[in-house]
Specification:
By secondary structure, the protein is mainly α. 56% of the residues lie in helices and 0% in strands. The longest helix is centred in the middle third of the chain and has 30 residues.
Amino acid sequence: MKDRDLHDHSDAAYDMLEEYVIGRLGTEATTVSGDWEATDDFKPEDTDSAEDFAKTQFLDLRQPLLWQVWKANFSKSYYLKQVHQPRHLKHSARLFGPDILEMFTRTVWYVVPIVWLPIAINLFVRSMLQFAMPTPSFWDNPVYPLSKLSSLTLDMFINTLPFFFLGNLIWTLLEYGMHRFLFHIDELLPDKPVFLTLHFLLHGIHHYMPMDRLRLVMPPVLFALLQAPFTRLAYILFPTPVANGIISGSFTFYVIYDCMHYALHHTMLPAYMREMKKYHLAHHYKNFELGFGVTSKIWDYVFNTVLTL
């Protein structure tokens, strides 16, 4: 506001403008483009933080981001325009500031299989046992399957396997549905700072900084919260052995999804995954309203949201 080449006012006038500001318009920083094409060796240039903030008056990448979103009183339309224009830093941006809080927002990719694969295996073995004998619940005896490994048979495995594959399929639908209808709830998002802040925390930060290596997979705490209602529903709808088979399949495919998501952003890949890498990066840099599939395009075809490269 204090650009004297455009308008010259007293300091008191500037103070009043700052006190009663309704929102900031800024100017657009354009990265997303309809004619954008991904290359196998795609490496975007780093954003000049000072220049970007001076131009857009959106977020200062040199400061913790979440509090800025909360305080800024952006209009929803301007927030959504800016948050879907990617920025890039060499390091991982700070969300909260204090290290103890940052720790819960940053996750190295291999944490996902370390945490969730043992749980998926436990549930798969538990399902096998439950088809054949009374078995204590997970919370009563979490390590019970380990004591019964010698009792497992091929028939038990065959009983559980179809439900494991059903869980794989269910995950692909959940992946698409959550990405499209929860993470991209843009049109239904209330135009209030609290909802813009929640949007930014849940998925906006990923579109704002899509190459941030430490924010490409879900922190275990976040996935634990997101999976809870779905696993609870599985136990309501299905017998326990069936539910455990389905959940183990879903968790296994979740691990594949998150590791693949990281790979699509940051690694050289075989032919199929190179195609999916171009497809997913086009979701970030070409059209964020299409192309919601990460592990496959199947549900994009079903729901007519395929993104043409």
